[in-house]
Each structure stands twice: as C-alpha cells, then as structure tokens.
Amino acid sequence: MESFQSLAISLGLGLLVGLQREWKESDIAGIRTFPLITMLGTLCVIASGGISWLSAAGLLSVAAMLAVANIAKLRSGVNSSGMTTEVAVLLMYVVGGALAVNQTGPAIVTTGVAAVLLHWKARLHGVVDAMTAKDLRAVMNLALIGLIVLPLLPDETYGPYDVLNPFSIWRMVVLIVGISMAAYVAQKLLGAKAGAVLGGIFGGLISSTATTVSYARQTKETPNISAIAALVIMIASTIVNIRVLIEIGAVAPTLLDVAFPPIAAMLVLMVLVCALLYMPVRKQDTTAPDYENPAQLKPAIIFGTLYAVVLFIVAAAKDIFGDQALYWIAGISGLTDVDAITLSTAKMFSEDRVDSQTAWRVILIATLSNLVFKAGIVAVLGCRRTFLYVCVAFGIAIAGGILLLVFWPGWDVNELGRLSGVLHLLNNGTK
C-alpha cells in the first residue's frame, strides 16, 4: 500500500513541475516526461529494496538521455545554453527515489521550491539585473558573517561572570544583520513605490537612527516637508518596538510572555501618534534615503563588540549593584543602540540572572532613551518645525512609556526609587 501511495505522490509532483515546463514550452521535458521520470526514480528504489545500484543506474540512464537530447538539439541548429530543465529532470528523479524511502516531506518541499524557482525565472533575473555592486557585496558579506565566521567561532564561555561566549555573541550579530538585511532587500525591491509609511517601516527595521539622520537633514534644506519627515521618523521609531519583540522572541521566548503586553501597549500608543501625524500629510512624500549596506563586516564587528561589552557590564552591575544599576545602564546604552541592551538583557533573563519584570523594564527604558537621543539628532540636523513635531510625538510616547514603567501590574511600588533618576532624565529629555 505504501508503494502505491509513493507512486501516486511521485506522479502528482512530477505533473506539477512538468506543467510548468510544458507551459514554458521546454524542448527537453514537459507534462508527460516529468511524471514518468519521477515515477522511474520511485520504482527503481522500490524494486531494489532501497538505494542501490539499480537507482544509481537509473540516474545515469536519465543523465545519458539528457545528453543525447542536447546533442540532437545542437545538431538541429538549436542553440540553448541553459541547463535548468536538465537539472530539474535529475532533481525530480531523486525526488521520486526519496518518496520510495518515506522521505515524503522533504520530497514535497523540494518539488515546491523547484516549481517556484522555475516559474520565477523572469522575476529572479530582474532582481539580479537590478542589483548594484553594493547590493551584491551586501549579500556576500551576509554569507561571510553567517555561514563562514559563525561556524568557526568557539562555543565556549570565557572571562568572569560566564557571559562572554564568542559563538553566542556572533549569533546575535547574525540575527541583527539578518533583520536589517531583509528590510534592506525589501526596500530596494519596492524603491520609490514604498512611500512614506513603508519607508518608515523599512527604516525602523534597517536603522531608525540612520532614518532619523537622513530625514532630519532633508528638512534642513526643505522645511516644507517637516511634517512628513517627522512622520517617517516616528514610524521608524515605532517599528523599533517590533524589532525588540522579535529579538526577545529569538533569544528568550519565555520572557516574551511577560514583555509582550507592555511593549505591545507602547507600540499601540506610538501607532496612534503616527496615525495623527499621517492624516494631514498623507498626500505628501519625501526622497527615501540611500541606506548603507547593513551587512558590512566592520559595523558587524563593532556591534558584536558593543553587545559583548554591554553583556559584561550588565552582568557585573547586576552582581555588584543589583537591579538599580541596570536601569542606568539601559538609559545610557539605549541612547545609541537598543539592540545590544535588548539582546543582553534577554540573554541574562534566559540564564536566570534577571527577573522578567526587571528585564522588560530595562528594555523599555532603553527604547525611551533612544527616543531622547533621536530627538537630539533632529534638534541638531533638522529645522525647528521638524524638531517641534518630533518633540510632541516623542513626548507623548515617552510619557506613555513612563506610565507603563510605573503602573504596569507586577511592579513592586516600594522599588520606585530605583527608577526615579532615570525617569526624571527621560521626562526632561525632549524639553
């Protein structure tokens, strides 16, 4: 019965790929040939009781037939340099063999991926044609960071407090670069069609600070776009909350159960502020910034170093001074980078060094501190009108964040003194 089921699935999968190749009018294989080849792979494995000389001979026979077909094409004057269909034929033979040994899941996924890749030829070629040298470097750097450097690092803990693990530290670098790179690619694909709202979303995922700098500078030269620039800056800063939730979920999923409600409440508040800014300026637009490659090796090393430093300081401060020092560290480190303190705090929580109520408040303080820093950027680089818009928007967000820090359930009111100094700093940061 299992053999008949494998044959039926191989027939269906072969028809799927064959349909696409027939639609593209392939000279090598089409709607009939692909299912026959897939079933051949299945039968060869079934007949021999597993992967053996018979399945290998079948694969060689299929390869020989493909070679003969291509020679015939060349002799008839048909010049085709592509080998996509030939590779797809060999792949589907192996898929048929995988079905015979009960590897149904991988076989189905492989067929689906193959069908999509075959059908997206024009789209994929268009993406490659649109890539610049800088974009290609970004992809190669991401491969270097994630596929070469990461596996080579030792997965051992060094130094005091047992927190400095090269493999774990660089894995956080890969996470951050991966998030930024995904947004960078999406922004490149959409280009001018992204508009202000999507521009702010991508900016928040790539770098909200870089987005703030770029749009603030634009308002210095063109003050009449102040409102739309403030909207983009606010959207980018709002997306930071989503980025934070992604990072917490990746590093400490159990912390997300506690941190999600208050950070989501902060997100909703900032979304409402964005909506108020959007209404009067929805028909305006600005020039999207040309973001730097987020997968450059030097910034990745800098972030990895910063993350390691923050991780060590947080562990040391927790051990020496208790939770009170963590709030000040969050307020200071969050000025320039929210990711490092978020990841380090989440890691400390996963190692039972920080409780959940302290952890999410440390992260929220860092995000509020970052708003203060970006307001300062606008004050220095932007026009006065943009600074006014940003101050009002950020002021509402910071006030709401302070209320969350103090009044969210689970907080020990007797420990409010620990937060008082940081809250005072945040409260006056945008004045």
UniProtKB/TrEMBL annotation:
InterPro entries: DUF4010, MgtC_SapB_SrpB_YhiD_N
Protein's recorded name: MgtC family protein
Domain (MgtC/SapB/SrpB/YhiD N-terminal): residue spans on this chain: 7-125
Bilayer-crossing regions: 36-69, 107-124, 136-153, 168-187, 194-213, 225-246, 258-279, 299-318, 325-346, 358-380, 387-408
Keyword terms: Membrane, Transmembrane, Transmembrane helix
Domain of life: Bacteria
Domain DUF4010: 174-382
Species per Swiss-Prot/TrEMBL record: Crateriforma conspicua
